[in-house]
């Protein structure tokens, strides 16, 4: 079985060595020494001012909305994992969907300004597949209309824009450290800000809003454990090598696929990519489904990532009216992520690419 992704596991002895310290200290969670060490190393690796390691990549989106006091309308992307929209709905916000750019599939800044109303409080954008949004244009719109900017940067670990970590942009950025990501802690995530006051609030938010018997305000349980931090400490030093291995496989796909019949999203100028995903776009959903059927028959499991377009989900239409996003709706029907992970064998890429090419040709001949 070749899955769309495969989790990287570090040397078991390195992990067990860190766990022995956990057993000696009997400090399993609650801001333990391994967690603090990991936060420090992550800040240094990413070059960011404040970073809080939390339980997952969804709760940090909720924390971002809460700490920025966002309660009303938020302009967001319809082309993302459902957690982006779920976080808005869970926090009682109203998602207002702006369509995406046809080349990189990120939110289109040119579609944002016309959607701003007196109730608009923020823009929540996703750096799709780890590729940066139009950051300067989004920031200019936000400043003009006094809006906050939250980036769902779940895919961006290790990717940079104009020499800085993509996580360093916006009022707040969040990242997922799920087991399938470029960097992972089995389960986990982080929230990043350059604002000292927000960072202090987030520190308390993560732990029920109090420390010992001193209460600072509202909080939630977003703490992560020493066991997850230990995994992160083992994986982090390997990230440059993991990204390099992903790049090799990405380029090998490029050399084997027939791009006369398929396309890929373009990379934003100024981005140094982390090769988190390998998305391809077909000419129709019919072609995509034929390719999927061909691959699955050979125990190869791709992923319709992202499908469906989030503006079409019935529970997301809290305004009571449809919010058409024709580009996102079209792309969501035609995009497929092929298997991508650091130790994916070249012979497997050869086989996947050959199956994709053959299926696309076959369906074009059927038409």
Automatic annotation (TrEMBL):
GO terms for molecular function: pyridoxal phosphate binding; transaminase activity. It comes from the Bacteria. Keywords: Aminotransferase, Pyridoxal phosphate, Transferase. This is DegT/DnrJ/EryC1/StrS family aminotransferase. The active site is at residue 181. The keyword ATP-binding does not apply. The modification N6-(pyridoxal phosphate)lysine is found at residue 181. The lineage of its organism: Bacteria, Pseudomonadati, Bacteroidota, Cytophagia, Cytophagales.
């Amino acid at each position: 079985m070749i899955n769309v992704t495969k989790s990287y596991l570090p040397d078991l002895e390195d992990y067990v060595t860190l766990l022995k310290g956990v057993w000696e200290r009997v400090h399993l969670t609650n801001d333990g020494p391994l967690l603090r060490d990991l936060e420090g190393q992550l800040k240094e690796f990413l070059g960011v001012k404040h970073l809080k390691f939390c339980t997952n990549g969804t709760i940090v989106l909720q924390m971002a909305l809460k700490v920025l006091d966002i309660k009303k309308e938020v302009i967001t992307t319809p082309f993302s994992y459902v957690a982006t929209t779920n976080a808005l709905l869970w926090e009682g916000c109203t998602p207002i969907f702006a369509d995406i750019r046809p080349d990189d599939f990120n939110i289109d800044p040119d579609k944002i300004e016309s959607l701003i109303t007196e109730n608009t409080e923020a823009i929540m954008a996703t750096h799709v597949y780890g590729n940066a949004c139009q950051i300067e244009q989004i920031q200019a719109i936000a400043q003009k209309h006094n809006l906050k900017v939250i980036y769902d940067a779940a895919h961006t670990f290790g990717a940079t824009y104009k020499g800085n970590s993509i996580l360093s942009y916006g009022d707040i950025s969040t990242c997922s450290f799920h087991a399938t990501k470029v960097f992972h802690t089995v389960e986990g995530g982080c929230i990043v800000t350059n604002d000292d006051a927000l960072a202090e609030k987030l520190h308390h938010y993560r732990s029920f809003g109090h420390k010992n018997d001193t209460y600072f305000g509202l909080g939630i349980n977003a703490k992560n454990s020493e066991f997850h931090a230990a995994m992160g400490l083992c994986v982090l030093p390997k990230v440059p090598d993991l990204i390099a291995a992903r790049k090799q496989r990405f380029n090998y796909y490029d050399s084997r696929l027939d791009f006369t019949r398929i396309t890929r999203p373009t990379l934003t100028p100024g981005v140094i990519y982390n090769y988190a995903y390998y998305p391809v776009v077909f000419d129709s959903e019919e072609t995509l489904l034929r390719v999927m059927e061909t691959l699955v028959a050979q125990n190869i499991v791709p992923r319709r990532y992202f499908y469906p377009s989030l503006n079409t989900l019935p529970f997301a239409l809290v305004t009571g009216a449809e919010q058409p996003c024709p580009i996102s709706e079209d792309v969501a029907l035609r995009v497929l992520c092929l298997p991508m992970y650091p130790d994916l064998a070249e012979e497997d890429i050869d086989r996947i690419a050959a199956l994709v090419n053959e299926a696309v040709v076959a369906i074009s001949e059927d038409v």
